[in-house]
Amino acid sequence: MTKKPMTKKLLSASLLGLAVALTLGAAPAARAADAAAATTTAARISTAFGLPSAKAFPEGIAADPRTGTVYVGSYTDGTVYRARPGARTAEVFLPAGTDGRRTANGLRVDAHGRLWVTDSTKGVSVYDTRSGARLAHFEIPGDDPRFLNDLAITPDGAAYLTDSVRAVVYRVTPTQLAAGSGPLLPAYDLSGRLTPSPAGGFSLNGITADPAGRYLLTVDMTAGDLYRIDPRSGAVSRVALSGGDLKTADGLDLAPGGVLRAAQNTRNTLSRWQLSADGTRARLVRTLTDPSLQIPTTLVQVPGGRTLVVRSQFDKDGGPMPSTGAPTAFTVASVRGF
């Protein structure tokens, strides 16, 4: 790697290379995955709420189970939006450029009601959801290229974050969080385990935690593989997938009972998997493919049997992928029956 910082231009180039590679291979792979799905019962897709910006290009989403409030982050300028229960339009919670943040990718609300927000170029910040005050901040040291992408929080309060360029998983411990700041350092290096990606492509993307804290799952979106990490031992293994693959998988959501949902962005597909009790195997249960998902980047389960899905529109004017035209209003989808 070079010793130059990963500028917005470099980020766009990496995403462009990724988008081209995924788009070329997405159609046949999507057909194969759809054919393998065990059930095809129709799901209902509607709009949960809109975002008050013509240039939002949202990427991440998080729900606060205590209040029902949902947070959405903008990839293009770092704005974080807040949608209170029942709202048809979100409001700005953290304006563009807050604390120098240029992007807002992975979002997560922890058990104490703190909002974690990643900046792909720098690190992660933690905010008080009542006041918006920044409580903690952790940055990746050095100036090598990086793309901090998504995060998960385990029951012990530790946060784990993926890097799509370096293929590492960073960790912030509760002790580090209490200190308020510090370097963001890798806890696990998966680079030697992954299938080599094409030039300009990404590897690790979504990450999610077992509700009991036994393991983490992270996806290699280019190869379509899923990896299991044991936070206690550090053991890393590939999950045995049956019925399909996770190519183009972006966000992951793991529910109790071993139900794993994935947003597969350029396929315009959501997939649902059933994990074995130990998280070492996953079987594709069903898929939902619909152009109205508008390049879904991530998803979250909320009460009422709904899955909220981020419609990124990354393939429209102003987005990071090759444009197919002007974007429509930016919204978050509500999917029932999935």
Q: In which range does the helix fraction lie?
A: 10-25%
The residue-averaged pLDDT reads: 90
Main structural class: mainly beta
Order of helices and strands: HEEEEEEEEEEEEHEEEEEEEEEEEEEE
Radius of gyration: 18 Å
User: How many β-strands, per DSSP?
Assistant: 26
Q: Total number of helical segments?
A: 2
- Uncertain residue ranges: 1-14, 16-40
Most strands sheet: 5 strands, mixed
Calculate the terminal CA-CA distance, rounded to whole Å: 41 Å
The strand order across the widest sheet is 6-7-8-9-13
Percent of sequence in beta strands: 35-45%
Shape descriptor: globular
Q: Can you tell me about this structure?
A:
The chain is mainly beta and 338 residues long. The protein is 10% helix and 42% strand. It is built from 2 helices and 26 strands. The strands form 6 sheets. It has a 5-stranded mixed β-sheet with strand order 6-7-8-9-13. Strands 19-23-22-21-20 form a 5-stranded mixed β-sheet. A 4-stranded antiparallel β-sheet has the order 1-26-25-24, with no helix packed on it. Strand 4 and strand 5 (91-94) form a beta hairpin. Residues 1-14 and 16-40 have low confidence and may be disordered.
Write out key terms for the chains shown:
338 residues, mainly beta, five-stranded mixed sheet, 26 strands, 42% strand
